[in-house]
Amino acid sequence: MSRETIRRKKPIRLSLLSDVKRVLRRGKLHTVCEESKCPNIGECFANRTATFLIMGDVCTRGCRYCSVRKGTPKPLNPAEPKNLAKAAKELGLKYVVITSVTRDDLPDGGASHFAACIREIKREIPDAKVEVLTPDFRGKTELVDTVLRENPFVFNCNIETVERLYPKIRLGGRYEWTLNLLRYSKENYPHIWTKSGLMVGLGETWDDIRKTLEDLREAGCDILTVGQYLQPTKRQVEVVKEYTEEEFEKIKELAEELGFKYTFVGRWVRSSYKAWKVANGV
What we know:
This protein has 282 residues and is an alpha/beta fold. Helix content is 40%, strand content 15%. The termini are far apart.
């Protein structure tokens, strides 16, 4: 299977992307769809949906599965929250998904910037629902509290991979940091849905998967997404295993047995893929 076949489900028709890209460029906005080379970008942009990537396009960490640029980020753009809200309104979004690069260089990890983005969206589109996919904030609950006080509809913090592979795959992160934030959210803001995503194909075992799902449920995670890791470029780690449809179905059955409120599992599933549909599902 060629790298290009692995990377994309289908060719991207540029005519379907122009409207969304024009809106994004006018607001000087980034999307994780583009920066992570998501295989679903054509489908999502054609439907005038996107996952906004705030706080720039340079990450302070070097996770080995991610194609987002690593290095020293630029200062935050104070106009970004307003620009994002205006773009979401122009695109006609009623369900807005916001994620970010990791900004370990900022004293609050960018938590206050997330909060400002939520406020501006609610001001610009009062009936919109907001889903946030935040970094792990190094497990500091006082930082995620800044975000949760703005009452997003869904709080998402991805576990990404199994605990055993963290030292090799998720450099700079800690497995327990993500669990801490999910647990804090569910205990202190029980009305906010909690969500997390797992990639498979990086070298994990079935026992690893089961333990990860059990840990997420114990932490109060409501919504689970599981998808196949696909190597974005030659710079990232290679795929160790391609899961079959039957194996994904087995993971879905396990998740349902453990009591997740909603599971979205499959080869092309990404944490923010069809997020509105997942939210409707719960």
